[in-house]
Amino acid sequence: MSAKSPLMVKLVSTLGTSPGGVFETFMNLRQGKYEAENPVPVDIKEVYVIRTSDPAVERAFRLLKAIFACCGGREVEVAGIPLAMNDINTRSDYLQFRREVLSRISPGDYVDFTGGRKAMSVAAVLAARQREAHVVTSIIPQADYNEIQSKMKDFKDEDILEGENGRCKVDFCVLTSRNVKTILLE
Amino acid sequence: MSAKSPLMVKLVSTLGTSPGGVFETFMNLRQGKYEAENPVPVDIKEVYVIRTSDPAVERAFRLLKAIFACCGGREVEVAGIPLAMNDINTRSDYLQFRREVLSRISPGDYVDFTGGRKAMSVAAVLAARQREAHVVTSIIPQADYNEIQSKMKDFKDEDILEGENGRCKVDFCVLTSRNVKTILLE
After folding, report:
1. Which among A37, A61, A136, B91 is least surrounded, fewest beta carbons within 10 Å?
2. CA-to-CA distance for B58 and B61, rounded, in angstroms?
3. What is the pLDDT of residue A20?
4. In this structure, what DSSP letter does residue B86 have?
5. pLDDT tens digit string along A26-63?
6. What is d(CA A132, CA A128) in angstroms, rounded to the nearest whole number?
7. Residue A92: what pLDDT?
8. Comparing C-alpha atoms, which of B183, B151, B142, B186 is closest to residue B67?
9. Which chain B residues have a beta carbon less than 8 Å from that of A118?
10. Sign of the torsion angle spanned by Cα atoms B102, B104, B108, B114
């Protein structure tokens, strides 16, 4: 579909208050462990995380960076793309969100709409199709999700800061789940 | 965009466990009370409700029919389109859901993704764009949503059955909110 080198493929993910999904999607794509007609390992070197400026989402992003640094994605560049909004509350928010995602996607990239609000997912997916990018999502059992949401509260700011910088003093990998299923939809 | 008579315009909504959103979207479109470049009243005569076979979703659909019958949409045909799945758990579920929505949409229709799971919303929206249908959503304040979810539990099966048939013995309109904002996205 794309003339680009597979080395250049990005994962572009929306993020809500739960960091795990993005990392699981990344790992499953990289290992070729996803549902598709012909699943092959996807060599992702960069992850773009599109998110609002809500404080809980900001915290989830910092935890996500610590998870990548400490649980098997240290060599991957995780770039945050914070938007100047707390949620999609208006048509103008939606259009801004959609435009921002569109400007970050190249053909053949993987757009993951698992995190964030529904209107964000819709904006991201429509941008993905406009650019001929793939669309993926990950499904996590509700019990695992609830457990992880509860564990998130236990992390101290200073430990997260250390983790983001690759100093893994506490175990961030408890925020991931082995029961996540990733599906290539488009 | 469409050569069809405006009288033929449908609202095609995904439904989860909360019935209110579909009715609010319908009312706001009909009254021209929505965010758009040029909001005009939309004359909707038919509402298609695409839903899974989950029992809680089935109950929400019956409550929705009672709301239409008892709160200002009696002349509208509300048609349920139940799919033989409890959720979108696989790629095949997704493709079936997307195909089903696609087969129900005509150009110029309004597809409302407010209800249901995120993957359903994505399937519905991609089908909508494939058919050149509009995409709308409604935003409800979290407090109103929680209150309505709680009130839903109080309704007895026999009252719902009566309500569906236009015999409004109990007040179904408490399941609607005046604080819902509808946005035309595409």
Report:
1. A37
2. 5
3. 78
4. S
5. 999 999 999 999 999 999 999 999 999 999 999 999 99
6. 6
7. 96
8. B151
9. 113-114, 118, 121, 137
10. negative
The two structure tokens encoding residue A115: 């995190």
Q: Least CB-CB distance to B118: which of A35, A94, A113?
A: A113
B103 touches chain A (CB under 8 A): no
Tell me: the pLDDT tens digits for B99-120? 999 999 999 999 999 999 999 9
Q: What is the CA radius of gyration of chain A?
A: 15
DSSP structure string for B156-176 = -HHHHHHHHTT---S-GGGG-
Q: Minimal Cα–Cα distance from A184 to chain B, Å?
A: 7
Which residues from chain B sit within 8 angstroms of residue A94, using beta carbons? 183, 185
Q: CA angle, A46 as apex, A41 and A47 as ends, to 5°?
A: 95
Cα four-point dihedral sign A178, B123, A43, A50:
negative
Q: In what order do the strands lie in the sheet with A110-112?
A: A77-82, A46-51, A10-14, A110-112, A134-139, A181-184
Query: Would you say B75 and B25 are in contact if contact means Cβ atoms under 8 Å apart?
Result: no
Q: What pLDDT digit, counting tens, does each position of B23-32 carry?
A: 999 999 999 9
One-character DSSP codes across A145-174: HHHHHHHHTT--HHHHHHHHTT---S-GGG
Is B63 touching A (CB cutoff 8 A)? no
Distance linking the first and last C-alpha atoms of chain A:
12
Identify the DSSP state of B122.
H
Which residue type sits at B123? Answer: A
Mean pLDDT in chain A? 93
Architecture of the domain spanning B6-184? 3-Layer(aba) Sandwich (3.40)
CA distance B107 to B4: 8
Nearest CA in chain A to B139: A89
**Bridge partners for B138 per DSSP:** B182
| Predicted ipTM of the assembly | 0.91
pLDDT digit string, tens, across residues A123-171: 999 999 999 999 999 999 889 999 999 999 999 999 999 999 999 999 9
